[in-house]
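pasting for ref
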Amino acid sequence: MSVNPSVRKPFDPRDPLGIDDLLSPEDLAVRNTVRQWAADRVLPHIAEWYERGELPVIRELTRELGAIGALGMSLTGYGCAGASAVQYGLACLELEAADSGIRSLVSVQGSLAMYAIHRFGSEEQRQRWLPGMAAGEIIGCFGLTEPDHGSDPAGMRTFAKRDGTDWVLTGRKMWITNGSVAGVAVVWAQTDAGIRGFVVPTDSPGFSAPEITHKWSLRASVTSELIFDEVRLPADAVLPEAEGLRGPLSCLSHARYGIVWGSLGAARTSFESALDYARTREQFGRPIGGFQLTQAKLADMAVELHKGLLLAHHLGLRMDAGSLRPEQVSFGKLNNVREAIEICRTARTILGANGISLEYPVMRHATNLESVLTYEGTVEMHQLVLGKALTGLDAFR
């Protein structure tokens, strides 16, 4: 059957595979809402925030993100939007296209802290915390990583012991996004009966969260240490449905899914910056985009970016169908972050010396992705997850 060429859309350098055709009107509406919010509220200021190494308006931004339904958006009830996984992914992409720190804020709030309470908490815990968190009135954090235990959380030293009906929590957590501005922390600790999760109000006596400074990545993000100096918690602070590592690892899988999409937002911004620059920057009497080596770089960047988007969309459909496996999330995180950081680095070469300036977004995205590359599972961990799935042999130990 012949196809009338006149019905074909013109080639779009920013959507060369026509991936937008896979999105529903509702998907596009979510994407456009988040994109416009980021353009209005983040992009005019992000270079300054990054240079200063702070996010001074985090509370205002969190409330605004709540108002557009971006917090815990794939959860249902309790003021959450109940959006699809694909829509949540598109939101992560648009947020990270502005800055990884903004997407991290949303991921930790919704996919870690809120998801843990929604999935493993009691109804009383859900009612107490989730509406305020969905509205952005309460900021949450998620305490799993410790100074000496990152990839191997089973070795955590934070401990919760029983004292009558209460729990007494002692220990430290490290590299915690949102920690020093959070009103509630979801904390994982060893107990005599194994690893359990706890909902910890941050105004509890003995709790402190000093901010980590001198970062060269995720500078427009609040990162903290959590310290628990015999924090006394009532019996109902424990998450009743989470026992062992299954709880925190399922939360991480949900957050990693957002990274599968979000990392491509950083890559997209860097690619489009390089594409625009190549069209206008002249050397040897013509735009550098007219030289073969530059075109080869742009072509390779476009191929990897849009392959990654197809992968993210596929995983989103599987999540919406309830068939997404953790190994498949590892597949997506491993590929998309690794390719995203390479796209940023290649874009930097096209911009030359201008690529290191905050007048352009490329170096900021590249340095942010250095954190994204290793948090919520390093490259090596995801390779071993896939290796075990492929061979049936455990190489972790």
